[in-house]
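Recap from last week: sequence in, structure out.
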Amino acid sequence: MGGLIDIRLVLTQILGFLVLVWILGRYAWGPVVAQLEARRSRIAAEFDEAARRQREADALKAKYEQDLRDIESQARQLKLEAVTQGQRVAAEIKAQAQADAVARMARADEEIVHDQERAREMLKRQVAALSIRTAEKILRAKLDEPGQRELVERFIDEVDGRS
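Predicted structure tokens:
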């Protein structure tokens, strides 16, 4: 053992190591690197997909918020239209009630005038009848002036007693 290091052994080990590195590089390193690259690509694609879905979700959220604002606006508009229509209907009802009241008052006035005319007509007939009866009694009795007055006064008392 002339030297502590055996050169053949070291060369054999170096040669074995190089062969091992070459075999690993040729058969193991390529597939491992390819697998790592595939995994990196898959993860990147998943991140891209997640970002795409996030953008879609944000777009949908914005669309739904806009739709909600539109619906709220339409609801406010419908409420305003309902209030306006209610006020219009109330005004129509009020106008109709006033027109009905005026028509009833006119009919009542007409009925009053008609009743007054009937009462006058009835009064005329009664006065005419009373006058005729008074004249009949006066003609039948052929009394003198004081007797006629007394007869007329009795007749008037009779008429007042009936009324």
